[in-house]
Amino acid sequence: MVTTGLLFGLGDGVAQMLFPLNHDHLDEEKPTYNGYRTMRAMIYGSCFFAPCGVLWYGKRLPLIKNPFISAKSRETWSKNRVHLYDTVYRVVIDQLFIPGLVWIPMYNIVMSTLSGHENPLEVAFHKLQHNWWNVLTTNWMVWPGFQLVSLFYIPVHLRIVAANICSVGWNCFLSYLYNGKMHGNHQKEEILDHLVHSEEEIEETTMVVY
């Protein structure tokens, strides 16, 4: 749980360093680092996501079996084939229901509450209205492949560790999107614009040097 919290904090720190213009301090040349924001991410990771993740990925999800495989097929097929069919079914169930109905709403509600808003549910609902679909579709581009490999090859007791290692970039994305001044696809455009401007500044500096 501590490791999960540290990695959520690392993801937020990366988001603040890579995209400082996403802060509210747009009038400052160098926005200050928000340590409280990182602390909130660590609390969410340690106290909320980690326990729920262990319960779902470590205990509940491995028990789910593919209902489309008959008992006779389970007896005659090889263990690897049965395991593969069960794994694919688990990934489908996980990705269809858990991110959109559990992880994304929970993240927004908890982070809005920890931020000290007067009406955290209203703030969370507003953010979900603008970002829920964008986060969910991005999730489908990142996690199904990882989950397929994780559920098929990685032992149950090591799955959370593997997910934590691969989640730093995802945590960075969540932190950026939640704390952003814009929403949805507009923030993706902001990231691209920020990277383009950075490249232009590098080119101008190179021209001056030469």
TrEMBL record:
<dbReference type="Pfam" id="PF04117">
    <property type="entry name" value="Mpv17_PMP22"/>
</dbReference>
<protein>
    <recommendedName>
        <fullName>Protein SYM1</fullName>
    </recommendedName>
</protein>
<comment type="similarity">
    <text>Belongs to the peroxisomal membrane protein PXMP2/4 family.</text>
</comment>
<keyword id="KW-1133">Transmembrane helix</keyword>
<keyword id="KW-0812">Transmembrane</keyword>
<dbReference type="GO" id="GO:0016020">
    <property type="term" value="C:membrane"/>
</dbReference>
<feature type="transmembrane region" description="Helical">
    <location>
        <begin position="39"/>
        <end position="58"/>
    </location>
</feature>
<keyword id="KW-0472">Membrane</keyword>
<dbReference type="InterPro" id="IPR007248">
    <property type="entry name" value="Mpv17_PMP22"/>
</dbReference>
<dbReference type="GO" id="GO:0005739">
    <property type="term" value="C:mitochondrion"/>
</dbReference>
<feature type="transmembrane region" description="Helical">
    <location>
        <begin position="160"/>
        <end position="178"/>
    </location>
</feature>
